[in-house]
Amino acid sequence: MASFRFPFSFSQPSVPKPPRSTSSSFRLSVSAVAVTVTVGGVAAIAASRNPWVFSSHRSSQLPWGSIALASPSSESNVVVEPKTGFSFPATIGGGSRRLLGVGLRKKSLLGLKNIDVYAFGMYADCDDVKKLVGEKYANLPASELRGNKAFVDDLMDADIKMTIRLQIVYGKLNIRSVRTAFKDSVGNRLKKFGGLLDNDDLLQSFTSLFKDEYKIPRNSTIDMTREPGHVLNVAIEGNQVGSVKSKLLCRSILDLYIGEEPFDKNAREDFLDNVASIAAVDNK
Questions:
Q1: Which residues of 270-283 are buried (b: 16+ CB within 10 A; e: fewer)?
Q2: CA–CA distance from 115 to each of 69, 110, 230 (Å)?
Q3: Quick one: which of 222, 230, 236 has its CA closest to 251?
Q4: Alpha-carbon gap, residue 45 to 51, rounded angstroms
Q5: Residue 147 confidence (pLDDT)
Q6: Which 8-state DSSP code applies to residue 93?
Q7: Is the per-residue pLDDT at 225 higher than 60?
C-alpha cells in the first residue's frame, strides 16, 4: 500500500525501513526544501523552494503521480492510492485534518479471488494528536511511540477528530452490501470492546444510516468522522446522512483501520509512522 509522510521539518531525519515485499510504498521524509519518496525501495527527490512539492515513481522508474501543495489548507491537492489510482485530498475540513495513510479494502469473492472493494484514506487533526502526545507521551521518542500499544489505544479512545474516507472501487457494490458488511465487521468490534453488553441497538443505529435510497457508484465517497464528544458523523458524497454519539462505536470503527487486525496492515503501519513523525515535531 502507499505510504507517505507529511511536510514537517525535523532536526534529525528518520532512518528508512527496508522495502516491504507485499506492496509498493512511498514515504515523505521532509526537510525544509526537499522530499524523499520511496516506492518499492526506489527513492526520488523533489527539491524546490516550496517545501510543499511532492512527486513519486514506481520501482520501474515510470512516473505514476505527483502533487504540489500550495498551502497546508488547500483541499485541491491529492495523494494517490497506487493500486487503484484513486486519489485523496491531502487535507479536508478546511485544512484541519491531514491525510496520514491510504489503503485498500479487499474482499474474497466466493473464496475464489479477492476483489478491490474500496480505497480509503485516514485523516487526523494534527494539533489534537500533538496534544495527546504532550499530555501522556512526551518522554517517548518517535521510534518507540509508533509501536506503543497504549498510544495506539489512546488514539482510538481519545477525543481526537479523525476521518476515515472510503472511495468505492467495486462498481457493483450497493448500499445494502455496505450495510451488511459493517453489521458484521463493526458488530464484531462492538463485542470485542463492549464485553458482555448487548450493543445490538447501537449497531442498528449505525447501520440504519446507510439507507437503500443512497446510491454509491464507483468513485463515490463515504466519510466517517469522529467529531468532538465522540460523535460519529456519516456523510455520503459530502452530504451528511446522520450521526451517532458513542465512544464505543467510534473506537470500534477506527479499530477496523488502525487496530491490531486492520483491513490493510501496511496502511496501518504508515498511519502510525506518520502520527509518530508529527508528534516528534514537539517531542524532539
A1: bbbbbbbbbbbeeb
A2: 32, 10, 32
A3: 230
A4: 12
A5: 84
A6: T
A7: yes
CA distance 33 to 37: 13
Distance CA 164, CA 226 (A): 9
The string of DSSP letters for 155-202 reads HHHS---EEEEEEE--TT--HHHHHHHHHHHHHHHHHHHHTT---HHH
Q: At 232, is the secondary structure helix, strand, or coil?
A: strand
C-alpha cell, 157 = 479512545
Report residue 93 as a C-alpha cell.
Answer: 475540513
User: Rounded mean pLDDT of 256-267?
Assistant: 96
114 in helix, strand or coil? strand
Give strand pairing partners of 63: 57
The enclosing H or E element of 270 equals helix 265-283
Mean pLDDT of the chain: 78
Q: What is the pLDDT of residue 11?
A: 34
List pLDDT tens digits, range 13-68.
343 444 444 443 434 332 222 232 333 332 232 322 232 222 332 332 222 233 33
Domains and CATH numbers, the chain: 82-263 (3.50.70.10)
Cα distances (angstroms) measured from residue 262 to each of 185, 206, 230, 254, 267:
11, 20, 21, 9, 9
Task: Give the pLDDT mean for 220-225.
Answer: 98
Mark residue 110 as left, alpha or beta (left: phi above 0; alpha: psi -120 to 50; beta: remaining). left
Phi, psi of 161 (to 5 degrees): -75, 120
If you average pLDDT over residues 234-244, what whole number do you get?
Answer: 98
Q: How many CB atoms lie within 10 A of CB 114?
A: 10
Summarize the chain as % helix, strand, coil (round to 5). 30, 30, 40
In angstroms and rounded to an integer, the radius of gyration of the C-alpha atoms of the chain is 18
